[in-house]
Design brief:
The complex is a heterotrimer of chains A (331), B (348) and C (318).
Chain A (H helix, E strand, L loop, with lengths): L16 H8 L11 H4 L16 H10 L2 H18 L1 H4 L32 H37 L1 H15 L3 H12 L3 H28 L2 H8 L4 H37 L11 H8 L7 H29 L4
Chain B lengths: L23 E11 L7 E12 L4 E5 L6 H8 L7 E6 L2 E2 L7 H7 E4 L13 H11 L4 H14 L4 H4 L9 H13 L5 E5 L7 H18 L2 E6 L2 H7 L2 E6 L2 E7 H6 L4 H8 L40 H5 L14 E2 L17
Parallel strand pairs in B: 3-8, 3-9, 6-7, 7-8
Antiparallel strand pairs in B: 1-2, 1-4, 4-5, 9-10, 10-11
Helix pairs in contact in B: 3-4, 3-6, 4-6, 6-7
Chain C lengths: L1 H28 L15 H11 L5 H13 L13 H36 L4 H15 L2 H15 L21 H34 L2 H8 L4 H29 L2 H7 L4 H11 L2 H29 L7
Helix pairs in contact in C: 1-12, 4-5, 4-7, 4-9, 4-11, 4-12, 5-7, 6-7, 6-10, 7-9, 9-12, 10-11, 11-12
Classes of the chains: A mainly alpha (331), B alpha/beta (348), C mainly alpha (318).
């Protein structure tokens, strides 16, 4: 990756006038043994562009820093993540503590900011703890699918030929299922549970990730600098490592970030159907499902887990859109 | 001056065959690209091309688009694997245990036509140049030092240009980087595939002069491919003319340009635009489009556009003629083959 | 051109085959012995052996697959463990209910989404565009099952205008679309289902329209003196193929991905059948439903591709 050849900041000479001076200064950088007749126009100092040296990732960060909308939503996502992470510290009540008397109470009843659920447990605390499950079930499958699908896609794209056909046609079979159906089918067949749900989602996301990686790799592979790399004698793995990955990472990363919100939705959907964690573990989708019976009693309380899912999902979506805008610019 | 004053390559410590051994011999190189839709047909990109390149010279290769020049360039480095034919580099057969492809690629390098895709957009220019030496065993810092030195030799200040990205450079600067990249691994021969075709004329001149200077400085041998005849004349010692995957004429540059043997060469030379009103011509020197490379005409491939074609040209494919020595000038044309019975024999 | 059609149809066959392999193997990734799904827990060893042989569980896997495939191709999907009815009947009944939802949701969603997208694409950057884009993002990020619940809360619990769940007191047999007493059960599920396609379609349409408008030929048309309305018609015609492809895909999702919405509204469609089958571990129904739904999806994609090749002259040239 390009990290190995790290970007050394340009010397301090390029600030406004520096470029002009450099252009006027006929320094000769001829090699040894070159006669004067050849040095004249040939080695006259080339005028460098008068902009700051900025690598690709630096320019991405620069654009992001100046994009207030995306930053706001990223902050919200961060808040949600932190809240889930520090749930044991912030949660006002024990999420598992039931109360026969205090069941299905509305917002604000005796300190329960978001009311209580059908077993008398504090909804706010359960939401905070539930965030851990829902968020990890949202992020982990995307990570795994990016690694596995990305690797498969790069191999398929770079090697081409029969390997490509074999891999991509297999992916096509999984593409033939609507994602919800496939996730439910796999999770359902395996009997539910958090691990099976994550596995199901990973399998659902591998084909599209593979396709994105394969398309990007195929495009990169057709470019001349890959041939130049081959011409200098590099082996396939070296070329992939230094030339292909750096160029493929962009599209893959953008796509993965857009998958996170989908994954959160699907994961909660699986829990809603009873295919996620088992009760009494708090989880947003599961909470939505169990509270559904009680919408006639405390409608707002029952809707709150879904609201959490919605907020998280939409913020992730907007952040990923912002990332795409920052990363997708033709330089 | 184009003639090789000294066979620099022969003094190279890696030299195996001595000064008289041609650096590269290509024999009957063939590459057909199968076409998917029309059954077993294929595009005959390179169809039996043979030539030699002597040590220290510049061999120009000219022809229209689609004649197979670029495929030929890639064949010489085995970037595309030939279907048939052999390559002999400095006396050793390529792609054998004596000279595996990897070893060939240490001694021969290529400079591509500068499209925006010839440099990795995510790598600083210095790292792109350093990649070659790095791959061939140098440590990272050493490779970087070599890269910086090389950038300097092509006229780019390594401190100013090294950390830059390709999109920050102009076309001419990018091409200098490509040249630096090719030379960083210290090859003995460089294949230049239309290196100046994408550049403005003023920049073109600079880059051509750079190439000449570097050749002398590093004792290089060049194979220079271009469709621009004037550029080829400026740089080459001998020239090979290609048409539809075949070599139709080969000889010393002045001989070919002043006394072209093959009608195609004649037409190519006549169709160069000129500023001289005295050289104005009324009709186009050559008519029609090049025929389909999937289905070349029988007999001599050029006969459909040749003003001198006769029945023997439609039936028999002329051979290139025996190449006797460095000054030898031959063409694949029945008009110059005594045995063919063409009515215009030896009239040229 | 017909070559392309033939190739596309032939291509669907190995896909369908792969789909059936996946469906078949679902049973085998389940924990526990598949035999236990069809047997009561206290069966004797003798009974086990008989049933094993009858179901073919004692044969090698590829053999079992072929037997299963043969049965499936003749319409024999087995018998539901829960209801003892043939799975084929259960699935087709349920599928017709889902199709009912889809047939209402699709036109509403497509029309709304398309119009929104066209409006946004024709006035890029203005407030209309922002509103539409914002709505689209919301539509895609909203969990549709939650929206269903919210709609139920608003319209059934608070306002008491519409029923909360189900298909009516007489179920699917007594369902008359033209009477409000039945049709009112349709409103909320259809609205919920339509939400995601509206979001996706408006985004896609907007992008397609904006892209076509930026092309040079549009300027040429204006320069030739065409009225703005005529130009818009050209733009719409050119952006149609992309949009149609997405519409087709969304229709497939409406049929195949309706499980969550149907569960919320206990609408007796194929999705609801699936979730019941999961809870009951009714394996024959599980397999049959998944197989049917995914094959419908494959067929929908095939039809969409073929239609697209008819409309878009760029596709189909070899």
């Amino acid at each position: 990756m390009t990290d190995d050849f790290s970007i050394i900041p340009a010397k301090a000479g390029i600030q406004g006038g520096g470029a002009l001076v450099a252009a006027l200064d006929p320094r000769f950088h001829g090699g040894d043994g070159v006669t004067k007749e050849q040095t004249e126009p040939l080695f006259a100092q080339q005028a460098p562009p008068a902009t700051r040296v900025r690598g690709y990732w630096q320019s991405v960060f620069y654009r992001l820093r100046h994009d207030p909308v995306t930053l706001v939503f990223a902050a919200i996502v961060l808040l949600i993540v932190l809240a889930a992470l520090f749930a044991p510290l912030i949660a006002p009540f024990d999420p598992y503590k039931e109360s026969i008397v205090g069941r299905l109470k509305p917002f604000g009843w005796r300190g329960h900011l978001l009311g209580t659920d059908e077993l008398g447990r504090d909804v706010l605390s359960r939401l905070l703890y539930g965030g851990r499950v829902s968020l990890s079930m949202g992020v982990a499958p995307v990570l795994c699918a990016t690694l596995i699908g990305g690797m498969l896609g790069v191999i398929a794209g770079f090697v081409g030929g029969r390997t490509n056909t074999a891999i991509m046609r297999t992916m096509d079979v999984f593409y033939a299922f609507p994602s919800v159906l496939l996730a439910v089918a796999i999770a359902g067949a395996m009997g539910g549970g958090m691990a099976n749900g994550m596995l199901a989602l990973t399998l659902v996301f591998i084909p599209p990730m593979c396709r994105v990686a394969e398309t990007a790799t195929t495009q990169v592979r057709a470019l001349d600098f890959i041939e130049a790399a081959r011409a200098s004698g590099a082996k396939t793995m070296t070329i992939i490592r230094y030339h292909v990955l750096g160029n493929v990472l962009g599209p893959v990363f953008i796509y993965a970030s857009s998958l996170v919100s989908v994954s959160i939705l699907l994961a909660s959907g699986l829990s809603f159907l009873g295919l996620g964690v088992r009760p009494p573990v708090p989880d947003w989708g599961l909470m939505l499902s169990t509270l559904r019976q009680s919408i006639y009693v405390v409608p707002l309380v029952c809707a709150s887990p879904g609201f959490a899912i919605f907020i998280t999902s939409i913020c992730c979506n907007l952040v990923s859109d912002g990332l795409r805008a920052a990363m997708d610019v033709r330089m | 001056m184009n003639s090789p004053v000294h066979n620099g390559s022969a003094l190279d410590p890696r030299d195996r065959g001595g000064p008289l051994q041609p650096l590269l011999i290509a024999r009957e190189l063939r590459k057909h690209f199968p076409v998917k839709s029309s059954g077993g047909k294929s595009i005959k990109a390179v169809d039996g091309v043979s030539f030699t390149v002597r040590k220290g010279e510049t061999l120009g290769v000219v022809g229209e688009s689609g004649c197979g020049k670029s495929t030929l360039a890639r064949l010489l480095l085995h970037l595309v694997v030939p279907d048939a034919g052999e390559l002999v580099f400095d006396g050793e057969l390529v792609d054998t245990p004596e000279l595996p492809i990897g070893a060939l690629r240490r001694q021969v390098q290529i400079v591509f036509q500068d499209s925006y895709s010839s440099l990795n957009p995510r790598m600083p220019v210095r790292d792109s140049v350093a990649f070659g030496p790095f791959v061939q065993g140098k440590k990272k810092q050493q490779a970087r030092d070599i890269a910086c030195a090389m950038l300097g030799k092509v006229g780019l200040d390594p401190d100013l240009f090294g950390p830059r990205y390709p999109h920050e450079l102009s076309g001419g600067q990018k091409q200098r980087v490509n040249i630096a990249r090719a030379l960083a691994t210290e090859p003995r021969m460089v294949i230049l595939d239309e290196p100046v075709s994408a550049l403005d004329k003023s920049v073109e001149a600079q880059v051509l002069n750079l190439l000449r200077a570097l050749k002398r400085q590093f004792n290089l041998t060049y194979l220079f491919i271009s469709h621009d005849l004037n550029v080829v004349r400026y740089l080459s010692d001998r020239v090979l003319v290609m048409y539809l995957g075949r070599a139709v004429e080969i000889g010393p540059i002045d001989a070919v340009f002043e006394r072209p043997l093959h009608p195609y060469t004649r037409a190519l030379l006549a169709s160069r635009p000129s500023m001289d009103p005295a050289r104005r011509i009324e009709e186009a020197p050559i008519t029609g489009d090049p025929p389909n490379p999937i289905d070349p005409p029988p007999g001599c491939r050029f006969h459909t556009r040749c003003p001198f074609a006769e029945t023997t040209c439609e039936k028999i494919d002329p051979a290139l003629g025996v190449w006797e020595g460095p000054q030898s000038h031959v063409a694949a044309c029945h008009m110059h083959d005594v045995a063919s019975g063409h009515s215009r024999l030896a009239h040229g | 051109m017909s070559f392309y059609i033939l190739r596309r149809v032939l291509y669907a066959i190995p896909i369908a085959f792969g789909v059936s392999v996946v469906c078949f193997s679902l049973v085998y990734i389940a924990p526990g012995d598949p035999l236990q799904t069809v047997l009561p827990p206290d069966a004797t060893a003798e009974t086990i052996a008989i049933v094993k042989h009858a179901y073919g569980f004692d044969k090698p896997l590829p053999m079992q697959f072929l037997i299963w495939l043969g049965r499936v191709l003749t319409g024999n999907f087995g018998v539901s463990i829960a209801t003892r009815r043939p799975v084929f009947l259960e699935v087709t009944d349920a599928l017709s209910n889902t199709a009912l939802l889809a047939m209402f949701a699709a036109p509403i969603a497509f029309l709304t989404g398309y119009v929104m997208g066209v409006v946004a694409g024709c006035f890029p950057g203005r407030w209309l565009d922002r509103v539409v884009t914002g709505a689209a993002v919301m539509g895609v990020s909203l969990p549709n099952y939650w929206l269903g619940i919210v709609l139920v809360i608003v319209f059934a619990v608070e306002l008491m205008l519409l029923p909360a769940t189900g298909m009516g007191p007489s179920g699917s047999t007594g369902f008359h679309i033209y009477e409000w007493s039945s049709a009112k059960f349709l409103v909320l599920p259809v609205a919920t289902l339509a939400m995601i396609p509206i979001g996706i379609l408006s985004r896609t349409t907007r992008a397609a329209v904006a892209e076509v408008r930026n092309q040079d030929f549009v300027q040429t048309l204006r320069a030739k003196g065409l009225s703005e309305w005529a130009v818009i018609r050209h733009v719409l015609k050119n952006s149609l193929p992309t949009v149609m492809a997405v519409m087709g895909l969304q229709f497939g999702y409406l049929i195949g991905g309706s499980i969550l919405v149907e569960t919320v509204f206990t609408w007796p469609g194929s999705g609801f059948l699936l979730s019941k089958a999961i809870i009951n571990r009714d394996v024959p129904v599980l397999q049959g439903t998944i197989l049917t739904l995914s094959l419908v999806f494959v067929a929908t994609n095939l039809i969409v591709d073929l239609l697209q090749s008819l409309i878009d002259p760029r596709i189909g040239r070899a």
